[in-house]
Write a structure and sequence with these properties.
heterodimer; A: mainly alpha; B: 235 residues; two-stranded antiparallel sheet; 6 helices; 18% helix; globular; disordered C terminus
């Protein structure tokens, strides 16, 4: 963004720090409204906890409905941060600079919201912690062969990773704010900025830490939505047991993630007066990315449905028919319009690929992708193998209230975030303008080595956890061996990634501290 | 090794549903009420599926009781995150109610749709609570449940046999459905005992198993002279 479109260096600090100081009437009204919706949703959840999950519309055979749709949807949205931040950082793409923190914040909050839904949909939600492997004297232990346990490990790892990945580049900006505030704010930012002084060595360590995290977080993100897709693909329900689900869901996640990012940026741009920073060229590039993902989405959707149709398995044809021409046809074709037919013409032509055009396309994509998740879950469950068990599903006011409530909760978290932290990375913007060319690293950092070590430690921990505890439990399931090696591999991978992430953070804090002396 | 299994003679079954009623009485199965049943939430660990052929008045009906098949490669078992369902050493697919946190993944993965969920706390208006079977756990909301091959009767028979210092005799254990069938269409026993009735039925030329092609290795053996073709039945 160097050149005539670049924001004026002098105005970067005041423009981007402006929202942190004051709250306007608009802010108060927004927080009040969002807060009210969230409180209503919390009441509905309490109502459901007290009376039983029967207050939702799910039944036999449609045991999963809107809650799991929301779960998959939000975890999908969380892929925005990783793509933009990590991949664009690694490829040295400069236009990503004003966009990375918005995206990383979306990831963290989307994961937080998404991770609520596996708890909300439980029949006995107050026992959710039985999924955590903690020592107890009741003989309880999670089953590492279950995709739901892989979900728990993957989402935990991704949440820790994306929080670290949001936090590290935030540190210099936190120090900047610390130096400009007084009283409790100074204390808060002081603690959060870890005593950052901006010395050469500290910058050096930070760059290494961020680069290491970027490399580690990408496979984690891919694994998370793959594992979420395996909640369905591992099951033998008609049209679920498909090998395409892993990549299909990852592509869909990136697709909906970019759409969510565009919508968030449009709102931030207007409300926080960031027109000079979130420029039409950013929307142009993101719009092109969205267009690419639209085509990828269509490719996967076509491949999936063609394979099912051609194979003509009766139980799968029943589900396919219900989607394409039966009881789900309206939703299905609405999804096709919203995910492809509407956004693609808007995004394909430069004349319509404007800020407003990208916003319209993105909202359409978000609606379409929510429908896509719903249509993956409900038609299959409505048509199980034995036709006598076929059924229908209608969500109730409880499910709809909680759904709306989680959207409000996400918005509320984001609004509060923009009040406490600069939503555009100040130092990264300045870095681009001030640095003529990238400089060579002066001193070696041990962060990558520690990350590798952490990864190996984590892998060893995951391997022993899965293998030793399964062997101790000796509970056969589904004719599988007690130690099912493919499933052990998944646990090992996730804990390896968690180990790498944690060691990166620890080593960075250590190196940074040494750099002051 | 013992492997409990059941054989059901579809040529003898009249579709009277005595097995359904007996199961409900024996296993404390709640009555969910009319509106809940309309939503697809009725619980019936064994159900009778009905196939009709032809046009009235030349109608031919055949019946198939469907219950948990206690599959040796049960797809419901590996997906439970908390080991609330697993395969016990006697070949039963056991359900531990107190362990269940209600993810309902097992219900999605059962191709026979024989798993049922407690959407609300069951109610037994007085004096119905007096007919509850004390040998069977009373489930609360949020738990999955299904046929257990009347494990309480299996345990009682095994304890009795142990007290008397003898092995369990073939035909001594009768789950409630087997016991109540007026057509004597159902038989229960040890598949690994070659002398048992169930083992002999398993080798009958009339024997077939439901959805065998899925590889679930079900242990309910159905007997029928002609081929049972699945169709657009409603139970």
């Amino acid at each position: 963004m160097v050149g005539k479109n670049a924001p004026d260096l002098l105005w970067i600090d005041p423009d981007l720090l402006h929202p942190l100081g004051k709250t306007s009437r608009g802010f108060h009204i927004a927080v009040a409204c969002l807060g009210a919706i969230v409180l209503w949703a919390l009441f509905c959840w309490g109502y459901q906890l007290y009376w039983g999950i029967g207050v939702a519309g799910i039944n036999r055979p449609v045991f999963w409905g809107v809650y799991i749709t929301n779960f998959v949807f939000w975890i999908g949205i969380s892929h925005a941060g990783t793509l933009i931040s990590a991949i664009l950082r690694i490829t040295g793409t400069e236009w990503r600079r004003p966009v990375t923190r918005c995206a990383e914040a979306i990831t963290v909050f989307a994961l937080l919201i998404g991770a609520l839904f596996p708890i909300i949909h439980l029949g006995r939600a107050w026992k959710f912690y039985w999924l955590i492997p903690y020592p107890n004297e009741r003989g309880l232990w999670p089953n590492f062969r279950s995709p739901l346990v892989w979900d728990f490990l993957a989402i935990t790892t991704y949440f820790v990773g994306s929080t670290v990945y949001l936090y590290l580049p935030l540190i210099p900006d936190l120090a900047l704010v610390r130096d400009r505030t007084i009283s409790w704010r100074r204390w808060l930012y002081g603690v959060l900025s870890l005593g950052w002084q901006g010395t050469r060595c500290q910058w050096h360590s930070l760059e290494w830490a961020i680069s290491t995290m970027a490399v580690v977080i990408i496979p984690v993100a891919v694994s998370v939505h793959t594992i979420v897709s395996w909640d369905f693909a591992m099951a033998i329900a008609p049209m679920w047991h498909s090998t395409i689900f892993g990549p299909y869901f990852v592509v869909g996640a990136i697709y909906s993630g970019i759409a969510a990012l565009i919508v968030a940026m449009v709102i931030l741009r207007r409300v926080l007066h960031l027109e000079a920073y979130l420029q039409p060229l950013h929307f142009n590039y993101l719009g092109l990315l969205l267009l690419t993902m639209a085509c990828a989405w269509l490719y996967f959707t076509f491949a999936e449905h063609l394979t099912v149709w051609y194979g003509r398995f009766p139980e799968e044809m029943a589900v396919l028919q219900s989607k394409v021409s039966g009881s789900f046809a309206v939703l299905f074709w609405l999804m096709v319009v919203a995910c492809f037919l509407l956004p693609v013409p808007v995004l394909a032509f430069p004349r319509t690929r404007t800020v407003a055009g990208c916003c319209v396309a993105s909202v359409s994509v978000l609606v379409g992708m929510w429908l896509e998740r719903f249509l993956i879950i409900v038609p299959t469950l409505s048509h199980p193998h034995l036709t006598s068990a076929w059924g229908t599903y209608t969500p109730t006011w409880v499910e709809l209230s909680i759904t709306v409530g989680t959207f409000a909760a996400f918005a509320l978290l984001y609004v509060l975030f923009t009040k406490l932290f600069p939503v555009i990375s100040i130092w990264e913007l300045k870095e681009e303008t001030l640095r003529a060319q990238p400089t060579e690293p002066e001193r070696k950092s041990h962060i990558p080595l520690f990350a590798l070590g952490g990864g190996l430690l984590g892998a060893a921990a995951g391997l022993s956890l899965a293998v030793l505890t399964s062997t101790a439990m000796q509970l056969p399931t589904g004719g599988m061996p007690i130690v099912a090696w493919p499933t052990v591999g998944i646990v090992t991978f996730e804990l390896a990634a968690l180990g790498a992430i944690v060691m990166t953070l620890i080593r960075f804090v250590w190196e940074k501290r040494e750099a002051i002396r | 090794m013992t492997r409990w299994a059941m054989a059901i003679d579809l040529d003898a079954c009249t579709g009277c549903e005595a097995c359904v009623v007996a199961c409900k009485a024996e296993n404390n199965i709640p009555v969910v009420g009319e509106s809940e049943a309309a939503k697809g939430r009725a619980i019936s660990w064994i159900r009778v599926e009905r196939r009709l052929e032809g046009e009235y008045p030349h109608l031919k009906a055949s019946f198939m009781p469907v219950l948990c098949q206690h599959c040796d490669a049960a797809p419901c078992e590996p997906v439970c995150p908390v080991y609330a369902t697993y395969h016990n050493p006697e070949g039963l697919n056991v359900q531990i109610y107190a362990r269940c946190i209600g993810t309902r993944y097992c219900g999605n993965n059962c191709p026979y749709s024989v798993r049922y969920f407690n959407w609300f706390d069951p109610e037994w208006p007085e004096p119905l609570e007096q007919q509850l079977n004390p040998d069977v756990f009373v489930r609360s909301k949020g738990m999955m449940e299904k046929c257990t091959f009347c494990i309480q009767r299996i345990r009682r028979a095994k304890d009795q046999a142990k007290d008397e210092g003898r092995p369990v005799r073939d035909g001594e254990i009768q789950p409630a459905c087997v016991q109540s069938c007026p057509a004597k269409a159902m038989v229960f026993g040890d598949l690994d005992n070659p002398e048992s009735q169930v083992a002999r039925h398993a080798h009958s030329e009339r024997a077939f198993r439901l959805l065998e092609e899925l590889g679930t290795q079900p242990k309910v053996i159905y007997l029928k002279k002609e081929e049972w073709r699945g169709g657009q039945e409603r139970s």
